[in-house]
Amino acid sequence: MEERRIGYCGPGGWTMAIGVIQTIESLLWMTGGIFIPIIIQVRGNITKEDSHAFRVEFKSQRLWVVAALVFYILKFYMGLVLLRGSYMRNPTYLQAWMIHAVMSTVVYAVFKIIELFLSTGYALGIYVPKLYIFGGFVVSLVLHLLSIVVVHVHKQEMELPEIVPCRI
Predict the structure, then answer these.
(1) Transmembrane residues, as ranges (predicted)?
(2) DSSP, res 165
(3) Alpha helices (runs of H) in the chain, residue ranges in sequence order
(4) Per-residue confidence of the chain (168 residues) as pLDDT tens digits?
(5) Confidence (pLDDT) at 63
(6) Contact residues for 116 (Cβ-Cβ < 8 A; gap 6+)
(7) 44 vs 30, 120, 123, 131, 137, CA distance in Å?
(8) 121 φψ region: left (φ > 0), alpha (ψ -120 to 50), beta (else)
(9) Separation CA 4–CA 102 (nearest Å)
């Protein structure tokens, strides 16, 4: 059976692309999760006058970094699940990825909304306007939802029975 086209590829091609991008993205974030605490600690050793406040801030930042690292390890694994499910044409793997994607999108949205309300606008000493944070959140949310829809279309096409033409 011929796949529907989404742009220049069918849903299977886009699903593979989503899996590759998700896997590479999570690897990059995991690598960053190792180096960010080192940068924060070096920066903290330079400013000794606020050592108690820095230790409290560093502990909370370390907690967030560990939580993000766990999240990206899971995201890496689920990217591999998506790639395997698409390659092996197994709709169960795609369903597992979609459940993970919906849950992580909801968690991401909740944390970004909290960040928008609680943020002072500074990230590692650099001022970032809240409008930029909100714009990035909207774009990211749309891409997450689009990815879920594309994988859902691919899963539906996998589940369709093969139609064998009649020969008379």
Answers:
(1) 20-42, 63-85, 97-119, 131-153
(2) P
(3) 11-46, 51-88, 91-118, 130-159
(4) 555 666 667 788 889 999 999 999 888 888 876 666 556 655 555 454 544 444 555 566 667 777 778 888 999 999 999 999 999 989 999 999 999 999 999 988 998 888 788 777 666 566 777 777 788 889 999 999 999 999 999 898 888 776 555 555
(5) 72
(6) 130, 133, 134, 137
(7) 22, 20, 15, 29, 29
(8) left
(9) 24
User: Which residues have a Cβ under 8 Å from the Cβ of 98 and sit 6 or more positions away?
Assistant: 148, 151, 152, 155
At 83, list the tokens. 């790639």
How far is it, in rounded angstroms, from Cα 3 to Cα 39?
48
Q: With b meaning 16 or more CB within 10 Å and e meaning fewer, what string describes 55-87?
A: eeebeebeeebeebbebbeebbebbebbbebbe
Domain ranges of the chain: 11-159
Distance CA 113, CA 106 (A): 11
Q: Which two tokens stand for residue 26?
A: 């999570």
Are 159 and 91 in contact by the 8 Å Cβ rule? The answer is yes
